[in-house]
Amino acid sequence: MSYSETSAKQATERFGMSHLSIEVGHLYADDLAARPDALRAEMASAAAWVRGTTEALAHRLGGRRPRVSTCYLVDDYFHDDLPSPEKLVAAISEAAADAGLRIDYLARESGCARMGELDLAALVAGRIVFEPTPGTNGSRPPVSRSGWLCNGVPTPQRPRVAMSEPDTWRPPSQNSAREHSIFLDVELWNDTEHGRRWSCPMLAAVWQLMRLGVLRNHGKRIGAPVPVDQVVGVELSHEPGGRPAGRFPDQWSAMPPIIQLDPEAFPFPAYRTVSVLSGDFLEVEHAVRVICSCVRPDPGAFEAITKAAAREKVDLPAELVDRLSYIFQGPL
């Protein structure tokens, strides 16, 4: 059976889709330093969720074999004190193997900001469409200028005039609120003397959209994984009788944005995503959902994926953000 995208009206690159992409972890350097056993605890817990989620998916597919790929995101954007790629990939792989878990893809968070010459985060930011709620007075600058995106109408900020009556405070309001509002204002970036610095929610939104396969650059695929055997170099062993051994580059900046660790893995992009994360990420992912709900995906890619899912009799929510799911865990 073929499960590749079909051509849309524009020249949209074709590639295979999994049914589900499961993110089994997101590594912060400070967590690893504080708890050397954090990886093993994280993998052991994630393994149970992967098994349960895969079984549930098989049931929804009527007994068909699910195409499930797993991925792991390493934070090399906000931290530069990570262990070397060689050490960290080995540690992640060993912890996963001990838990009976397979890691198909390893990704760098900095790749969500830039991929080679492509300013990826800026490309996604340029596809954000925010419709002002009727009644707003235009005092708030557009997201393209402010770097802030909200899910409704903030409290009005009006200048005070001397001797005028006190302003009556008005609360913020959420678009499409259910009885009560949960208003959120998300910072997408700030500009520093070293250039634009993207926020964690913005990079995480790019990550989710890559996993859903809806990003294109002039119709071309973004974020194609590089097979691990194309990444690992060859270094001669200096031990007597030693054989050549593969080694990763010394610096994370020399690693591809996404590496395919398992050559037999199902495709990296998927119709839906599940992220198994610490509860510390709940606020970030709330912001991610606000961002993704405002992103206009590449129309050719979106149409092709929707049609491919329909051919496979896979139900997909019409809204892109509703294709994201989460499992939040407490302290391990």
List keywords for this structure.
332 residues; globular; two-stranded antiparallel sheet; 17 strands; 8 helices; single chain; 21% strand; alpha/beta; 2 domains; disordered N terminus
Q: SSE string, helix = H, strand = E?
A: EHHEHEHHEEEEEEHEEEEEEEHHE
Count of DSSP H/I helices: 8
Mean pLDDT: 86
Low-confidence stretches: 1-8, 236-244
Number of domains: 2
- Largest sheet data: 7 strands, mixed
Distance between the ends? 41 Å
Instruction: Say how many strands there are.
Output: 17
Rg over C-alpha atoms, rounded to the nearest angstrom? 22 Å
For the biggest β-sheet, the strand order reads 12-15-3-2-1-16-17
Walkthrough of the structure:
This protein has 332 residues and is an alpha/beta fold. The chain has 2 domains: 18-126 and 194-329; 148-187, no CATH class. Helix content is 27%, strand content 21%. It has 8 helices and 17 strands. The protein has helices spanning 29-34, 38-60, 85-98, 120-125, 143-146, 200-211, 282-294, 299-311; strands at 18-27, 68-74, 105-108, 148-150, 152-153, 173-174, 185-187, 189-192, 195-198, 216-217, 220-221, 226-227, 233-235, 245-247, 258-260, 270-278, 324-329. It has a 7-stranded mixed beta sheet. Strand 8 and strand 9 form a beta hairpin. Helix 6 packs across helix 7. 36% of the residues are buried.
